[in-house]
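>> Question from a student workshop board

For tomorrow's exercise we were told to take the sequence and the ligand below, predict the bound structure, and bring the output to class. My setup keeps failing. Could a helper post the expected result so I can at least see what it should look like? The ligand is N-(aminocarbonyl)-beta-alanine.
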Amino acid sequence: MDLLIKNGTIVTASEMFKADIAVQDGKIVEIGSNLNIPAAKVVDAEGKLVLPGAIDAHTHLEMPFGGTTSADGYGSGTRAAACGGTTTVFDFAMQDFDENMVDTVKRRDALCAPVAAVDYAFHVGVKDVHGDLLASMKEAVDFGVPSFKVFMVYDFGVSDGVFYKVLEQSKEIGALIAVHAENNEMVNMLVEKYISEGKTDAWHHYLSRPEFVEEEADKRAIAWAESLDAPLYIAHLANKGGVEAVSKAKEQGYHIYAETCPQYLEFTCDVYKREDGRNFVCSPPMKGKDSQDALWAAIKRGDIDTIATDHCPFLQSEKDWGINDFRKIPNGCAGIENMYPYMLAKANAGVLPFTKVVELCSANPARLFGCKQKGSLSVGKDADIVIYDPEKDFTVTCGNMHSDYDHTVWEGYSMHGYPVQTYSRGRLVYDNGEFVGEPGWGKFVKRSLR
Ligand code: URP
Ligand code: ZN
Ligand code: ZN
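>> Workshop helper replied:
Here is what the output should look like for this input. Compare the format with yours to find the bug.
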């Protein structure tokens, strides 16, 4: 046997139990009590939790955006993921105009494959479906990329008609569409209004994208999905009205799924009043306390399906472009190394069960996005394993993270409990604060939803 993890408490999405795990050739081959199997490496996990690696279904690595490129490349982003217990990273491969979507994936894979430290998958960020390009969605599905994101905002956002066409197509080809839902016209109108009034600070980034701007777009997107009975995944859900709309759609039996992110669970729009408020600028922005409470309540009743990071960091010098004009702040924050530790620390503090964290951060993203080898500790699955010490104290600083950014919104955030080891397909990639993996180890995860 290659690896035997003994005496730990295994956490799945439904139960916790004491058992040993045996790994051979990157797969889990046996789980049981007191396994007595000779192994090249034996790890004693007494007093520790043993969890499936997290799947971060929403990151933007090396992404050209906001007049620059996000600060983590595929190498540093996946390295940081490993050090935060994330063993599969989904990145958005943004389509160029007039580009076949398989070419989009291949273009980004050529950058990612040589340096990825953990396994990775892509969603295609759809910009253009004219002519044959709509049909290239099916080619992407056949290539192992059955998920796409449409943006209702930004200069590359799609029209309502294109969004509807993409949804319609997704039903036929067995794909899942994710949406960035904010009302673009309202955003543009409010931005213009505040700028003309000389209101240019980060607080006015929030005021130009307040709760109703997101809620209205959530409802519109859900209405179209319902009209087609097509599945829809609301990315980075942050507002209370949107949460209510998702709950209602689920109750009525529609396949509407929702993702939220740790930054919305931890911070409120008050951060935009801080001197460093620009560092928290992302879209949708953090919302008010009512929205934050609604997100936590939805997690507890099962109406939030996944937690992901929307990791999209920028350098301080780039965030500073917008000190006097919020429009110039590149949108996005760091989080790839913080998601699993943050959620597990909440479980350790009794806010939610550990099993729920596994469901949100690993089992559900694997199921919804068709990662059949991932998302649980069970025989036959990839040995993507995290060992978690519930007694280890950890405070985030930019210096003890493993990204290429130079600041983080999580600076100074303290947790009781922290991952101590991460295994990717049985290989140790993170060990007590150190990245011990290898660029190029990570493999493309071919997926299917059928
Ligand atoms: O501000 C954000 N979220 N930046 C990344 C792009 C997106 O909208 O997901
Ligand atoms: Zn988005
Ligand atoms: Zn995003």
